[in-house]
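Hey team,

Filing this mostly as a record. A colleague (T.K.) asked me to run one chain through the structure pipeline before their review meeting, and I want the input and output archived in the tracker in case anyone asks later how it was produced. No errors, nothing strange. Just documentation.

Input sequence:
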Amino acid sequence: MAIWKSKFSFEEIERRSKNTLPAHLGMRITEIGDDYVKATMPVDDRTKQPLGRLHGGASVALAESVGSLGAHMTLEPGFICVGIEINANHIRSVRQGLVTGVAKPLHIGHSTQIWDVRIYDEDDNIVCVSRLTMAIFKSP
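Output structure:
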């Protein structure tokens, strides 16, 4: 059973992301399941650190982006959410290709949500594990 209160088309997500950090870093939502959201991000000059590996901050940006989208889609109309805390454990380096972030909720409450985001390389090796906490507010 799907957890979404609203679900956006891929075209709508892309339109809303225009001229934002996710668009600049090449992130793309690739799948929305019943209880998860997947997105990819290239490992290229935009997302690498000076030693040629995926930048940890780019992984965190992917985790927050995909988790925030998931959180937003669980909200009742008239509410918004914002990230209030994120952590990340970087497990494996990546030098090229695509990484995929998969966000699943651990807790969906009335005032907060907690999302688990796992990032994988193209061989399905875990690259990063992140936890995102979102605050829920009535829309102004």
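Quick notes for T.K.: Residues 10-138 form a domain with the Thiol Ester Dehydrase; Chain A fold (CATH 3.10.129.10). The radius of gyration is 15 Å.
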